[in-house]
């Protein structure tokens, strides 16, 4: 097809078998509580912890830990992302409720990643409401991270769902900002609270003047729209200094802490 010839390669079959195998294992993990969450700190200007991002981990019994970059796409293609996403919201809300009981942790926020497949194919409003109600978690401490790919299809419907979630009290962060199909028009339509500068820009800050200019512009844009801005993938002091010079005062990255189990 498409003026191209493709030869069968035994690797293709091996790859497919691997996927089938992984999907089966993932299904079991989702239903038997075999997935765990790691938490990565999000810090303010003085390095004070403002909250955490929850990142999924799959400690596979035979293959060792499998990263979300591998299993989230499988979960999305097999619709396992729906029960997985519901489990994630419950776990996140439970954690927020626990933090709320202790004055030392009461103000912490928790960010969770929402897949665009989950957003479109689950009743996300019902799932979030249920998680909040069954745990008593404070809605305003929950941040949902969405990506620009969400807006590719049915932006009106997405916008309406986000408005309904906003009405519950939760906040939104636009993840991987600048890498996708950003249309600036969405920035004024969507009920966003935060832009998250993609780590590819942060990591090019030192070498590429263009990255520095882009980061500066994103921060200026966020400011003028009264949005918070957080930089992810901050690994060096130099990056932090550049970001601060541009007016970015929230950071996440190995410089402050890698994702780790809560304990
Ligand atoms: P993301 O949301 O952009 O998450 C940031 C990724 O950058 C994480 O990878 C994190 O471990 C990594 N990271 C954090 N700080 C640094 C740093 O300083 N340097 C570098 N090089 N990397 C850093 P991770 O945990 O492997 O997650 C990969 C992606 O998988 C996430 O990208 C997110 O899109 C997805 N994901 C993770 N957890 C979930 C989840 O619970 N639900 C959904 N739908 N997707 C998830
Ligand atoms: Ca994220
Ligand atoms: Ca990101």
Brief summary:
The protein has 263 residues and is of the alpha/beta class. 46% of the residues lie in helices and 20% in strands.
Could you characterize the architecture of this molecule?
- This protein has 263 residues and is α/β, with parallel strands linked by helices.
- The chain is built from ten helices and nine strands.
- It has helices at 10-31, 68-77, 81-100, 116-121, 124-135, 155-168, 184-189, 199-204, 209-224, 237-246, and strands at residues 36-43, 49-60, 64-66, 109-113, 142-147, 171-177, 194-197, 228-232, 251-252.
- The chain has an eight-stranded mixed barrel, surrounded by four helices.
- It is globular and about 55 Å long.
- The protein binds ligand C2E and calcium ion (2 copies).
- Residues 53, 113, 145, 175 line the site of one calcium ion.
Secondary structure: helix percent:
40-55%
The span between the termini is 53 Å
Report strand %.
15-25%
The counted number of beta strands is: 9
Give every kind of bound small molecule, once each.
Answer: ligand C2E, calcium ion
- Secondary-structure element sequence? HEEEHHEHHEHEHEHHEHE
Question: How many alpha or pi helices?
Answer: 10
Assembly classification: single chain
Structural class by SSE content? alpha/beta
Uncertain runs with pLDDT below 50, 5 residues or more?
none
Which sequence of strands runs across the widest sheet? 1-2-4-5-6-7-8-9
Assign an overall shape: globular
- The radius of gyration over CA amounts to 19 Å
**Main beta-sheet annotation:** 8 strands, mixed, barrel
Domain EAL: 19-263
Protein name: Diguanylate cyclase/phosphodiesterase with PAS/PAC sensor(S)
